[in-house]
Design a protein that fits this description.
287 residues; alpha/beta; single chain; Rossmann fold
Amino acid sequence: MSFPTVGNKSVLVTGCSSGIGLATAEMLRSRGWKVFPTARKVDDLDALKLAGFDAIKLDVTSSQSIATAVDRVLVKNSGHLGAVVNNAGFGMPGAIQDLSRDAMRHQFEVNVFGLQELTNTLIPTFQKQGYGRIINISSVVGRLSLPFMGIYSASKFALEAISDAQRVELSPDQIAVSLIEPGPISTRFSTNCAEEGEGQLDVDSSQFGAAYKKYFAKRRNGGMAEDRWRLPPEAVAEKIVHALESRRPKIRYKVTVPAHLGALAARFIPAGLIDRQMISHVKKRFG
């Protein structure tokens, strides 16, 4: 499907303290986009401002923060915005049985509910303009659920479903919705994931306690099986650029070999065979 080009090359990019968000902000700025990067922490906002960005404070778990950030962006940009890149998110590790309701709720508040509230707040502006692009950063585990990252996978499955529905709903308004599905990327995701697990999981009382400790150490220090496939965050940023600038943006963009293999497995390999492969993978990772 063909969409109008973005008439106002301005974009709100969430989660820009490092990694994919920061790489995307820098790449888009180099291509002439007016970029409004967001972050939660004062130090990260100061670093973005020092790099010459018009940084916006945003916590996607707060409706008030979302409303304030959108108002600020629209005031700064004369009521217009060309696109939003929903990159802010995190991964909550752990066996499903070990996750508290609060931990599961927080995963969805950040990765799904806050993301979608921000998007919905911007849609009236896109509709009024007659153009707009929505880029949602999903994951290969939004197509193929990963044991011990199950609630993170669930949040990305939800994002995939929402994006598929909203892509059709917004098609009469000429607003494009694209999903980016990275595999392993060289960012702080693994370190943040370990920190989240140590903070939220009762490791000592879990039957998987010893495995968690080994798992978190590998996430911090390397040694993960997927490390050999890691690409720099700029590889994701390049796909985002295409989704923003092409008249025919793709519905899904896969990044890294595991992302392509995971999507193929989800479509063509029987669930029983996938289970056997996952069990073998878990045994190798955790013993």
